[in-house]
Specification:
alpha/beta; globular; 242 residues
């Protein structure tokens, strides 16, 4: 349950309101259908590869775990924590897809606001977040700093974003003109224009991801991929020692 006294921010309130029992049930039903989809299989393989970068058993956090649709893709885990703001989604995560293939020795579900919940420093070897950051919650310096603190030395952060050039992002005249002007905009004007195009972190292109991680993480892989809905960014980065 939500920790006593924990502040609930706007993104967590939005998630609680949106992901009610009916939505969570429909979302969980979708997990079964995803098993046959290439994009989902590709994300599972990507997550397994991220886990494979470690040569020891790892402690893992799924940030915004929803119904736990990626739990079974976590390999070589000593423990797996699923954090989500929605009680209804976590209720479905108690019976996740392919539960028989979850290899983590310990699985714990936690209700909390990812922008406010507190984990002790150096708690996890891997924090992953799929379909949450730069989509439903801003990928910004505050979130990056929190994840950096939660990770152990040499820990990794694996996440996806929605690219602003994704076909489902409304390409208004204003956005189109800003995109054309961005390569020509100097210094501070260029940075302000780029931030506006990224909606303050609700989208994330390669430039935004690199800027958000700078000084905290060393990028190991960064690529684009397409799902049935979005054009995404996909990144694995290793914690840098300050």
């Amino acid at each position: 349950m939500m920790a006593t006294g924990e502040a609930i921010g706007p993104w967590a309130r939005k998630a609680e309101a949106l992901y009610d029992d009916a939505y969570a049930r429909k979302y969980r039903d979708r997990d079964e259908a995803l098993l046959e989809e290439t994009t989902y299989q590709n994300l599972i393989a990507w997550l397994q590869q991220a886990c494979g970068r470690f040569h020891h058993r790892i402690d893992v956090l799924d940030l915004g775990c929803g119904t736990g649709r990626y739990f079974w893709g976590v390999n070589n885990a000593r423990s797996l924590v699923g954090l989500d703001a929605s009680v209804a989604m976590l209720a479905e995560a108690r019976h996740p897809v392919r539960a028989d293939r979850i290899s983590a020795r310990e699985l714990r579900l936690v209700q909390g606001d990812l922008a406010a919940h507190v984990f002790p420093d150096d708690s996890f070897d891997l924090v992953y977040s799929i379909g949450v950051l730069a989509e439903h919650v801003p990928l910004d310096a505050e979130i990056v700093d929190r994840i950096w603190r939660w990770l152990k030395p040499e820990g990794r952060f694996a996440f996806t974003t929605v690219d602003p050039q994704s076909p489902d992002v409304p390409q208004t005249l204003q956005r189109s003109l800003a995109s054309l002007a961005l390569p020509l905009a100097p210094g501070g004007l260029g940075r302000a224009l780029h931030r506006r195009l990224m909606a303050g972190g609700m989208y994330g292109d390669e430039r935004w991801i690199r800027q958000a991680l700078a000084g905290k993480f060393k990028i190991e892989s960064l690529e684009q991929f397409r799902s049935d809905v979005h054009l995404h960014g996909r990144c694995v980065a290793r914690k840098a020692v300050e």
